[in-house]
Amino acid sequence: MLEIKGLQKSFHGQAVLKDLNLQIKDGEIFGFIGKNGAGKTTTMKILAGLLRPDNGEVSLDGIDILKYAAKRKNMLGYMPDFFGIYDNLTVQEYMEFYASIYGYAGNTKKKRIAELLMIMNLAGKEDQYVDSLSRGMKQRLCLARTMVHKPKLLILDEPASGLEIRERIQFEQIVKRLSEENVTIFISSHNLNELSAICTSVGILNEGKIVLQGSMDEIRNRKMARNLIRMEVVTELEKAVAILKAHPLVSNIAIKGNNISINFSQNNLKKESELLSSLVSEGVGIASFTREESTLESIFLQVT
Amino acid sequence: MLHWNPIFIKEIRQNARMKKTAVMLILYNSFLALFGLFAFYLTFRRTGNTLQADYADVLTMYGIITGIEFVLVLAIVPALTATSIATEREKQTLDILLTTKISRRGIILGKLASAISIMMLLVISSLPIISVVFSIGGITLGDIMVFMFLTLIAAIFAGSIGMIFSCLCKKTVTAIVASYLVLIALVGGLPFLFFGPEIVAHFRAYGNYWGLYYGASEVTYQSRVVVFILNPFFTFLAMVNQKFLLGGDFFAYLDPNKRVTAFIAEHWFSLSITVQAFLSACMIEVSSRLLVPGDKEGKLVKKRNRR
Ligand SMILES: Nc1ncnc2c1ncn2[C@@H]1O[C@H](COP(=O)(O)OP(=O)(O)OP(=O)(O)O)[C@@H](O)[C@H]1O
Ligand SMILES: [Mg+2]
């Protein structure tokens, strides 16, 4: 369990993180969403020990990782929003470098590296020079590097940005597979859609605070709560409008030709079906009745 | 500890593949060979066909060649260390390293060791040139070992100076310039800073500077001379002087009135080496404290290097 409490950080008197609170359960893939400059990287650097917060606490499995650097370094893998690779090293040597930092040696080291390169779909690339790899491969190599010591928490700063679609999908599959091994994964992005395919939970950061947090399902439900219902009325249009106007849960009725769209302010399927049947029983001819799903994007725009 | 330091291994690998290393080896040895030939010529030209040379001249030749080698070491090592951390910072790999388990001191030591190892590679590769003097005689294996040891300490000392600035400065260029300034001040400027008036007086009287080292001076340098213990080049001169040139205690020439205790004068070589080694250790420690994440320009640099 990763717990962030009351995290604050300002640069030159300008507050970037005002009061950041988060709780992330083990094994989650947590999407950390925010606009450019919202403070995602700042938060991640604080977790990784690269920045000191002005205030606040961070604990991982009950251990204060801001205070205990050695424990933090063992428990956490950090992938920044740049590659950070060395020229003149092969994939194998690059991995060996980080593996020996964590005390791997001899056959255990070789085995661990082979295992990671396999997971990352990089098997067979051992002797290639790191700077000759494609973006996606570099990305996966960096991920392999962060995983070398089997961390409990993986921090990935905008890993999906700048990847072409195929590589992104591959990357997502790998991240999913990693999370099955009970690694908690903390991913940032400025795009909620980008992460919706893999995240189990999401937090949206705006103006230094989390403005929306929940499991992906909760976010999807919230999506419905904001739903617009659209219907196509073929007969008795006026009657339909009158019924809708009289209904306590309906607001914002918009009529465009045969199409009526309403805001149904409660996320309640039963009430929705009652509304439909009351329209039908009054003799209104309805050709279609659909909830229009607002996109994740529009949720993001609403809360930020 | 050094042989398993991952940074050291990594650096060695990278250096071995760089053209820079090969070019440096070639230039270094060519330069040394040229000077060696020149010294050889100077030593033997008087003797004509008989190839007889004054025994002392051969020793002078050894002094000149090793002196040049020593100055080259002092000139190259700071450049190697001054770039080491700054490069890592510019590539932003330093931030990554600092989130891993390797200690700051481990990073510094690994970097320093790799710079020193390049240096020792240069020195060892030049042994054939130095050992030309062997063929004539007068120099023992022990002398060469002492010289190598002295060079090693000087390399660590100069390298640590470069290391401090590498950690302090955010740019490679600044780090190099700053380290050279300090080193030049230490080796060249220090004597003038402390003994300016005496040196000027000496120069007026004898018309040269060189005699300062050979005791032609009647100027009293007093106990302030002890500050030279920081100067690696004086350590070198002490070695050369004691062993080969005048056979006496070179320090006595600087301090004829024996204001400084005889103990320091007598053990100048070992004392200065100890002091310099101790200072190096301090500088390594300071460097590791200075090794903080990030870069001053923050966002600017970051955006440029971003994926
Ligand atoms: N070292 C620094 N010095 C001064 N200001 C900084 C520093 N680092 C970050 N900031 C500022 O803090 C704010 C948050 O930056 P941060 O990099 O955390 O945003 P982000 O959410 O990661 O944005 P992006 O999507 O661009 O990566 C920005 O306004 C940035 O200018
Ligand atoms: Mg960022």
Tag the structure with descriptive keywords.
heterodimer; A: 304 residues; alpha/beta; six-stranded mixed beta sheet; four-stranded antiparallel beta sheet; 11 helices; 14 strands; elongated; B: 307 residues; mainly alpha; disordered C terminus; binds adenosine-5'-triphosphate; binds magnesium ion
Question: What's the short story on this structure?
Answer:
Chain A has about 300 residues and is of the alpha/beta class.
What does this structure look like?
By secondary structure, chain A is α/β, with parallel strands linked by helices. Helices cover 38% and strands 30% of the residues of chain A. In chain A, a hairpin with a 2-residue loop joins strand 12 (250-256) and strand 13. In chain A, helix 3 crosses helix 4 (106-119). Chain B is an all-alpha fold and 307 residues long. Chain B has one domain (6-296). The model of chain B is unreliable at 209-220 and 296-307 (pLDDT under 50). The A-B interface holds A 45, 48-51, 70, 73-74, 76, 78, 80-89, 93, 97-98, 100-103, 135, 139, 149, 158, 161-162 and B 4, 6, 9-10, 13-14, 17-18, 91-93, 95-96, 98-102, 293-294, 302, 305-307. Residues 40-41, 81, 157-158 of chain A line the site of magnesium ion.
Q: What is the terminal-to-terminal distance of chain B?
A: 36 Å
Structural class of chain A: alpha/beta
**Coarse morphology of chain A:** elongated
Low-confidence runs of chain B? 209-220, 296-307
Evaluate the radius of gyration of chain A.
25 Å
User: Which ligands appear in the coordinates?
Assistant: adenosine-5'-triphosphate, magnesium ion
Helix content class of chain B: over 70%
Main β-sheet of chain B, in a few words? none
Tally the helices of chain A.
11
**Dominant shape of chain B:** globular
Largest sheet of chain A: 6 strands, mixed
Strand content of chain A: 25-35%
Work out the count of structural domains of chain B. Answer: 1
Distance between the termini of chain A: 27 Å
Q: Give the % helix of chain A.
A: 25-40%
Please state how the strands of the largest beta sheet of chain A are arranged side by side. 6-7-8-3-9-10
Number of strands of chain A: 14
Largest interface: A-B, 33 and 24 residues
Uncertain segments of chain A of ≥5 residues (pLDDT<50)?
none
